[in-house]
Design brief:
This protein is mostly beta strands. It contains one helix and ten strands, in the order αββββββββββ. A five-stranded antiparallel beta sheet has the order 6-7-8-9-10, with no helix packed on it.
């Protein structure tokens, strides 16, 4: 005699729950409107303030987006072809330069501080992205869009975190 573990109704419910979990995903909302931005024509340059208030009300320094841990302030940002040059002062007052390779899109310059993907499909997948987009708004202020994604999947179970934040640094 065979025993049934699930009845027909239970199988339908379990199948519906599994399909819902596979289809549903979480992601952050695009927080900056492209209408506010100016076409930069492969050129970003200027002197910008060092700190700003973000959308969540916290003070954020511009040096965070250029991975400058020992710096005090950024003096100037210039671009040439697919490279951004950042001139900054360290804590002791010394002047330093750092370059970032990226791509110019229509209204912004995009580069990655971190981009790592480990793929062993369908068993294990992890992604770690930290993308920075720079652009200029109509007030000649620097608009920084920071997208962060750290997620992974083991078999069919997935987890992770992501956010998309916008910061505006006024021109000096």
């Amino acid at each position: 005699m065979k025993t049934k573990i699930f009845s027909k109704n239970h199988r339908c419910i379990v199948t519906l729950i599994c399909l819902t979990l596979l289809i549903t995903s979480c992601s952050s909302v695009d927080s900056f409107k492209r209408k506010e931005l100016v076409n930069i024509h492969k050129n970003i340059s200027g002197n910008f303030t060092n700190s700003t208030l973000s959308e969540n009300g916290r003070t954020t320094k511009i040096t965070k987006f250029f991975d400058l841990k020992d710096s005090d302030s950024i003096v100037q940002i210039q671009s040439k072809r697919n490279t951004i040059f950042v001139c900054f002062f360290d804590v002791l007052g010394g002047k330093h330069y750092k370059t970032f390779e990226g791509k110019f899109k229509r209204k912004f310059f995009q580069f990655y501080l971190d981009y790592d993907t480990n793929l062993y499909p369908p068993i294990f997948i992890t992604t770690h992205k930290n993308r920075v987009r720079l652009s200029i708004n109509q007030d000649s202020s620097l608009v920084v869009n920071n997208y962060y994604d750290n997620s992974g999947m083991l078999l069919i179970m997935g987890a992770g975190t992501s956010w998309n934040s916008k910061y505006i640094f006024n021109k000096r």
